[in-house]
Write a structure and sequence with these properties.
- With about 230 residues, the chain is of the alpha+beta class.
- The protein folds into two domains: about 110 residues, 3-Layer(aba) Sandwich (Aspartate Aminotransferase, domain 2); about 110 residues, Aspartate Aminotransferase, domain 1, CATH 3.90.1150.170.
- About 40% of the residues lie in helices and about 15% in strands.
- The strands form two sheets. A four-stranded antiparallel β-sheet has the order 4-5-7-6. A three-stranded mixed β-sheet has the order 1-2-3.
- Helix 3 packs across helix 5 and helix 4 crosses helix 5.
- The longest helix has about 35 residues.
- Belongs to the group II decarboxylase family.
- Its cofactor is pyridoxal 5'-phosphate.
- InterPro entries: Aromatic_deC, PyrdxlP-dep_de-COase, PyrdxlP-dep_Trfase, PyrdxlP-dep_Trfase_major, PyrdxlP-dep_Trfase_small, Pyridoxal-P_BS.
- Pfam families: Pyridoxal_deC (PF00282).
Length: about 230
Amino acid sequence: MWFHVDGAFGSFVVLDPSRRNLVVWLSDADSLAFDFHKWLHAPYAAGCVLMREIGMLHATFSSPRNYLVGTKRGFASDNPWFCDMGIELSRPCRALKVWFNLKEHGTVRLGQAIAANCNQAQYLFNLLSKHDFIRVFTPVSLNIVNFRLEPQQIKKADPEIIDLFNDEIVNDLQEQGIAVPSTTRLKDRLYIRVCITNHRSTLQDFDLFVDKLIDLSRSRVLLMNKSTE
């Protein structure tokens, strides 16, 4: 059995000492993939894969050619050739921007930014929980908050109508330049998904987000009522 972990952005929580225990099992993985352009704020795109057995990459992707022979000296003396480790022969230098990011900020400050995003998720959870018509999917363990608006006026409507209502709220938020949440499906119902990975986010941003969310919800309920009159 091969144990591969798609670490995406979540594996970076290892840099947060207070939440590192959530990913201790990463050390058991045979391979781990993650993206620096997500929770480490590097410019897109910068992905990475760590392998226990690097020889397996070479065995899979290496395609020796007479014009690609390594040498003991000179420009062709690099060992290993990274083009033998993946599908790309011509490779941009993606690692440089990651190196600069780590040199400038360091893993401690990057971990602090990750912790701040997780704390902001808890703050958003508390704001949303104050409203009885907002159902928050729990637990909120890291930086993602999933919730669903179920206004009293449409709470007894067909669940698919409520799904559509939430989807329209997301579109309203995006088109008005307020925020860019996405959607997901949990237990076959549509939820609004807020994934916080921006180091520039502040608590005031979430105050504004919830205020606008409530306003848009009220406006859309009125619009729905008028359409059925």
